[in-house]
Amino acid sequence: MEDMKPYSIDQLYRQYGPSVYRRALNILGSEQEAQEAMQEVFVTLLTKGESFRGDSSLMTWLYSVTTNLCLNQIRNRKRRAMLLSARYRDLHPEDRPHPELVHIVANLLDCVPTDQAQVAIYYYFDDMTQEEISTMMGCSRRKVGDLLERFRSVVAGLEHHEKSLHPPASLSKNKAGGREK
């Protein structure tokens, strides 16, 4: 918190609050939940500000705290599918992802460790580079690559499992008991 001593929490709230709120709204999809998350981020700043080492900008630290808080909030409430659906409801119908896809993505993010979910969101939703993610998370680019690779392995495993549950139509039997051609 050494870097923040000249600033009051009020000044920091005015300066960084809108960015924190937008980040939370982007992830949570609810204005009320985003407002609550923003307040919680600034409570974290007050109570755990000493964990800010100054290796990155204060905005980067707040962005990371906001992302982690929002991911935990989603995971704890088991509402990821509903939140992702709400995020897309205002889009034009052809721009909306299929509801089943939203549900699949929500379940996928819910079943991977937080650091993998965080990297996946930064990489796939925020279009950040691995270098940007490593700076944001305070880890090496190699670790980010490893986390993405593990995430992709989970996705590939689920795709393989899905294919084994639903064999191609050419392998299914017709009413006569034979294979369809």
Feature tags:
181 residues; mainly alpha; 0% strand; 8 helices; single chain
Describe this structure in words.
The protein is mainly alpha-helical. Helix content is 69%, strand content 0%. Helix 1 packs across helix 3 and helix 6 packs across helix 8.
Write the layout of secondary structure elements.
Elements: H1 9-28, H2 31-48, H3 58-77, H4 80-88, H5 99-111, H6 114-125, H7 130-137, H8 141-165
Helix pairs in contact: 1-2, 1-3, 2-3, 4-5, 6-8, 7-8
Portion in beta strands: under 5%
Task: Please report the number of helical segments.
Answer: 8
Low-confidence segments, given as residue ranges, are: 170-181
- Order of SSEs: HHHHHHHH
Q: Give the beta-strand count.
A: 0
Shape designation: globular
- The radius of gyration is 21 Å
Distance between the termini: 70 Å
| Helix content range | 55-70%
Q: Main sheet?
A: none
Secondary structural class: mainly alpha
Mean pLDDT: 76
Write a compact overview of the structure shown:
The protein is an all-alpha fold and 181 residues long. It has helices at residues 9-28, 31-48, 58-77, 80-88, 99-111, 114-125, 130-137, 141-165.
